[in-house]
């Protein structure tokens, strides 16, 4: 009797992975275990189970070299590596005083070197106050924009009763839940691997935490670091005035506001800090911290009530696996399902090609219509930056004019009460009106005298011989300046409020947002709506008083702005491909050097300590399987348009090249021709990804894959 493969597997307690010729089989008992796990934790999906099984059989260390594994004779990069830092308050630790019973003393700490101690952080606890009292100017001038960039920290829109209610809620929470640790603050590289982190102890996101992070990065990695932070535009001013300011300038650290958060900042901030306008960052969005916290937030429920040591132990294990998972998924076909960032290099290369191809066609059409070139787009950005710089640091004479006009406006408003008797006679006020005017006269006369004295002192100080009057030319010109200033302030405030509301509405529509958070967002949106209504009224009032505008600035034309975005998008895409070419060779070199290190270690122990040699060999085999899969994906990447580098490993600075003499390479350096894949349909791209083959070519791309496969079997134990 004929029996199918799946029928035979069922009889032995297994279920095949396919209907006809299954390559894998899973125990039915395993699926029953998953069923019970899923009932207890509905978020534990089959996808998560599949990843769990994968990692039970494949293991690798927390090593991700594309950012830090420098190779000799690399093409120069504007930034040596790119990263992001941010704080998160999910991983709290409740103070032991709230526990029942007696807490056992435990002075153990984490042994992982990515943790900063509280003492290292507290070195900067007084930096903010010291920087505000010092008379020294910051070492650079790249801090012209104002502090109103931090839109989400502004509570001025709240009514007085709402502010009091907010304060009461905060005080109640503080009294009830005093956390020993309020969360974590960390730095990740652009590939999502944790670089350094610390606890936020009994505080919010204070400036001492990012300052301590910057110090560690400068000490460890030196110059040319590109670092993203949500409030970098404001933080960078504190950084330059701190004790780290001179090192920041000397080592050329460059701050960036992440792409998504940057759109909530005003335009003056965006043209200086948004990644689109920062040379050398490529297509990096600097939002990797948010993606990292999305996973670490799930750890909060099991760490909040543990001991300090066990909390850090759980966090270490989580981020160890987080980094391992990203590396293990790199280059495999499974990462297309599991996590897109696991396919980081390939996807970014293809995205850069698509952006460059699409933007170039649209930009060409606009340039023909506008009669512009690349020089015009660069000049437009500089013009816009200078425009906002002039707004933020207006000339001294303008500031003096506006200040003097404010005093004169108050003075002339009070002067009307000195004409009391004349108004009573000429205007024919009634007895009630006369009594009211007399009362106002008595209460405002003292104010008039004070303002008059202040005006006289101001005129003496600034050498104003003749007081301006509403009929004088000076008064008319100054009134125009003051009106335009108020109009610009109203426009800026309206833009900030509208963008902030869009930011909250986007968050409201995200999945996984809890009910209480949705309620808070809804309430915030109602408050924003009232604030926007008031801002529109101010905008309309100042707009009606505005004189006809001056010459139109070209970069403010919608077509010009669109052309600028397209041009700098192409520029960033080209930079991204250059960086990816460097990262590909770093990764290939690191995988090969790692292979050689294992080979030498196994050879040194195979006779004197065979047990260690066997353990190393098992680990070596697992690494080789992962690295082979990554290499296949890099081969596919090399077949994309724009790749002109090599897949042959380089030589790391400081690494002994003679170690490679123990092995014979079976691969050669291969140069690839360009191929345009931008025109593929979505179906063709899916087939392109899953097949594992970039294209048919004249060379044998398996030679590159053999760099990992053949070396693993050439000297089997």
What structural class do you assign from the helix and strand content? Answer: mainly alpha
Q: How much helix, percentage-wise, in residues? A: 55-70%
- Taken from the alpha-carbon principal axes, the silhouette is elongated
Can you count the helices? Answer: 26
So what's the oligomer here?
single chain
Strand order of the largest sheet: 7-6-3-8-9
Number of distinct beta strands:
9
What is the radius of gyration? 33 Å
Low-confidence stretches: 57-63, 144-159, 333-342, 665-682, 684-717
Largest sheet features: 5 strands, mixed
Mean pLDDT: 74
Question: What share of residues are in beta strands?
Answer: 5-15%
Terminal residue distance: 44 Å
Describe the structure.
- With 717 residues, the protein is mainly alpha-helical.
- Among the domains are: 5-44, no CATH class; 81-329, no CATH class; 574-713, no CATH class.
- The chain has 26 helices and nine strands.
- It has helices at residues 5-11, 28-40, 46-57, 118-122, 127-133, 160-176, 208-221, 232-241, 245-250, 259-262, 267-273, 288-296, 300-303, 308-329, 335-338, 344-370, 374-392, 396-415, 420-427, 431-461, 473-508, 515-545, 558-605, 610-638, 682-691, 702-713; strands at residues 14-16, 25-27, 81-88, 93-94, 179-181, 183-189, 194-200, 225-228, 254-256.
- Strands 7-6-3-8-9 form a five-stranded mixed sheet.
- Helix 17 (374-392) crosses helix 23.
- It is elongated, with a radius of gyration of 33 Å.
- The model is unreliable at 57-63, 144-159, 333-342, 665-682 and 684-717 (pLDDT under 50).
């Amino acid at each position: 009797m004929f029996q199918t493969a799946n029928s035979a597997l069922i009889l032995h307690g297994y279920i095949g992975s396919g209907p006809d010729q299954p390559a894998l089989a899973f125990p039915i008992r395993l699926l029953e275990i998953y069923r019970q796990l899923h009932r207890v934790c509905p978020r534990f999906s089959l996808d998560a189970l599949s990843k769990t099984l994968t990692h039970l059989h494949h293991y690798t260390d927390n090593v991700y070299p594309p950012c830090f594994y420098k190779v000799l004779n690399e093409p120069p990069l504007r930034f040596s590596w790119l990263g992001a830092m941010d704080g998160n308050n999910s991983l709290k630790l409740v103070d032991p005083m709230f526990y029942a019973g007696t807490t056992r003393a435990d002075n153990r700490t984490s042994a992982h070197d990515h943790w900063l101690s509280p003492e290292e952080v507290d070195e900067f606890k007084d930096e903010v106050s010291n920087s505000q009292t010092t008379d020294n100017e910051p070492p650079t001038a790249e801090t012209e924009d104002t502090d109103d960039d931090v839109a989400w920290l502004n509570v001025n829109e709240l009514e007085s009763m709402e502010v009091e209610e907010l304060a009461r809620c905060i005080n109640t929470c503080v009294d009830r839940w005093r956390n020993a640790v309020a969360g974590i603050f960390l730095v990740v590289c652009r590939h999502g691997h944790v670089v350094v982190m610390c606890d936020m102890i009994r505080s919010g996101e204070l400036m001492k935490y990012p300052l301590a992070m910057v110090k560690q990065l400068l000490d460890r990695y030196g110059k040319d670091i590109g670092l993203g932070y949500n409030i970098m535009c404001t933080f960078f001013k504190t950084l330059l005035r701190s004790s780290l300011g001179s090192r920041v300038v000397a080592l050329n650290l460059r701050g960036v506001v992440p792409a998504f958060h940057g759109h909530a900042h005003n335009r003056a901030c965006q043209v200086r800090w948004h990644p689109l306008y920062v040379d050398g960052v490529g297509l990096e969005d600097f939002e990797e911290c948010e993606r990292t916290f999305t996973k670490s937030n799930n750890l909060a429920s099991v760490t909040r009530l543990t001991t300090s040591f066990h909390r850090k132990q759980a966090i270490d294990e989580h981020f160890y696996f987080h980094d391992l998972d990203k590396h293990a998924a790199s280059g495999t076909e499974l990462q297309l399902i599991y996590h897109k960032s696991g396919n980081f290099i390939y996807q970014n290369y293809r995205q850069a090609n698509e952006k460059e191809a699409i933007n170039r066609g649209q930009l060409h059409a606009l340039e023909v219509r506008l009669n512009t070139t690349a020089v015009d787009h660069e000049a437009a950005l500089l013009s816009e930056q200078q425009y906002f710089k002039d707004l933020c640091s207006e000339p001294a004479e303008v500031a003096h004019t506006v200040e003097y006009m404010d005093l004169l406006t108050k003075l002339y408003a009070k002067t009307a009460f000195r004409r009391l008797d004349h108004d009573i006679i000429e205007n024919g006020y009634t007895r009630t009106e006369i009594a009211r005017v007399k009362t106002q006269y008595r209460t405002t006369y003292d104010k008039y005298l004070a303002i008059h004295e202040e005006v006289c002192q101001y005129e003496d100080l600034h050498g104003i011989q003749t007081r301006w009057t509403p009929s004088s030319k000076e008064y008319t010109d100054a009134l125009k300046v003051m009106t335009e200033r108020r109009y610009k302030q109203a426009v800026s405030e309206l833009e900030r409020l509208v963008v902030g509301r869009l930011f909250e509405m986007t968050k409201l529509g995200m999945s996984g947002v809890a009910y209480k958070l949705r309620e808070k967002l809804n309430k915030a949106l109602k408050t924003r709506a009232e604030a926007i209504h008031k801002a529109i009224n101010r905008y309309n009032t100042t707009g009606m008083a505005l004189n006809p505008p001056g010459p139109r600035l070209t970069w403010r034309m919608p077509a010009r702005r669109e052309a600028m975005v397209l041009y700098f998008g192409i520029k960033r895409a080209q930079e991204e491909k250059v960086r990816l070419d460097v990262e590909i060779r770093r990764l290939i070199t690191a995988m090969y050097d790692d292979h050689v290190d294992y080979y030498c270690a196994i050879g040194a122990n195979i006779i004197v300590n065979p047990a260690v040699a066997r353990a190393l060999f098992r680990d070596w085999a697992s690494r080789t399987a992962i690295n082979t899969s990554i290499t296949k994906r890099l081969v596919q990447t090399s077949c994309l348009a724009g790749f002109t580098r090599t897949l042959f490993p380089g030589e790391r600075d400081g690494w002994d090249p003679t170690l490679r003499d123990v092995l014979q390479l079976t691969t050669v350096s291969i140069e690839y021709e360009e191929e345009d894949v931008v025109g593929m349909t979505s179906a063709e791209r899916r087939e392109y990804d899953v097949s594992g083959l970039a294209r048919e070519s004249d060379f044998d791309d398996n030679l590159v894959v053999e760099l990992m496969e053949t070396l693993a079997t050439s000297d089997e134990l």
